[in-house]
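note to self: dont lose this again. the chain is below, predicted strucutre after it. 118 aa total, dont forget to put it in the shared folder this time
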Amino acid sequence: MHELSIALSIVEIAAEEAQRHGAARVEAVHLKLGALSGVVKDALLFSWDLACNDTPLAGSRLQVEEIPVRVWCPACQSERTLDADLDFRCPQCGGTATEVRSGRELELSAIEIQESGG
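---
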C-alpha cells in the first residue's frame, strides 16, 4: 500500500511547515487528489492516523478534494470533464480527447495550524 508512504511524506512536509511558522499543532491538512493520481482516497485516509502518530499532526484531519479528469477536445475546441469510467472521448461529441488538463494532482494545498500561545 503506497498510500502509507504518501501519508508519511505529507505529514513530514506539513510538520516542517508548521514548525517554520511556530505552530503548536496542525489542525488539518488539505490535499487535492486527481482521479488519475494513482492514489486511492480511502486507503490514504485509512493511513492518515497511523502516519500522524507521535508527530505535531496527531489528531489532525486530512481533507481531500477530489479533482475530476478534464480533457481538451480539439473537435469542440473546449475543455470537458470525463465521466467516472474515464473513457477518453469527448462526452459531448465523441471525439478523441488529446490533452489531459486536470486529474493528475496530488497537491498539498493548505495547512490549518494553531499558533503557539493561542
